Each structure stands twice: as structure tokens, then as C-alpha cells.
Amino acid sequence: MIGDSLSPLKLACYTALTGNSSFMALISGLFDQQAPTNQAFNYVLMGHGTQLPQNTLGKGGRECTITFDIFTQGKLGSADALAIANLLFTTLVQTTLVLTTTPAQTCTYVDFDNYSDQMEGDAVPVYHGMARLLFRTQEV
Predict the structure, then answer these.
(1) DSSP symbols for 103-123
(2) Which of 62, 66, 108, 137 is the most exposed place for a label (fewest CB within 10 A)?
């Protein structure tokens, strides 16, 4: 029986994304839950996650979601947010995510849902994009 998959999955995502120089060139930082005060735009937060049992054929697994909040600023804010979301998704789909769990797990499926809006009240437009990714993990 497997335990927590969410924390090791977030670590695997962080490692994959920070290891992608094209992704990191688009942002000033990738943070867990909260950015530092006065963080420069563009940045991404790895936000809340969920996990549910997803056992298959006698092997333990989990169905997990992680929400990535994308913050951009400027006239191209929404376009920048979409470019960041697309590269985030592409990176995580094309990388074999192996979790540091006992027993070992690997990510077998990734799905994507996104949303964006303009935040009001700033002199320069600030955009908040959200990418919620669904992962299925399975014992190997």
C-alpha cells in the first residue's frame, strides 16, 4: 500500500520545471504556495493539491491534482500567461516523473485545465492564469 503521493509529486514537478531552461527563461521564479513580497513578474506558484486512491490491478496508485497559479504583468500579460501555461504542461507531459516514494511510483497520465483573468486596480494590467493538472500515479 502506498502513502502520500502529493508531496513527492510536487517535488518531481518542481525538479522538472526548474530543470527546463526555456520555462525558467519565461518566469522570475517558481514557488510553493506563496511568492516573496514584491516578487518580480512573471512568476508561478505551485498551489493547492488533492489526492484520491486510484488502485489498479492490485497495484497502489493515486489520482492527484496540482493547481499552478501564473502571475504576469503588462500589455502582453495574458499572452505571456498562456505561453507559460503551455510550456508548463508540455514540460510535465514530456518528462517521466518518478516519485521518491516506497514503493516507487511513476506518473502515468497528465491532463490540463486552464483559466485566466485580469486583476483590477493596478496601473499596469496584472493577469492571473491558473493551470490545474491532473496526474495519475502508479506503483512500478
Answers:
(1) S-EEEEEEEEEEEEEEESS-S
(2) 108
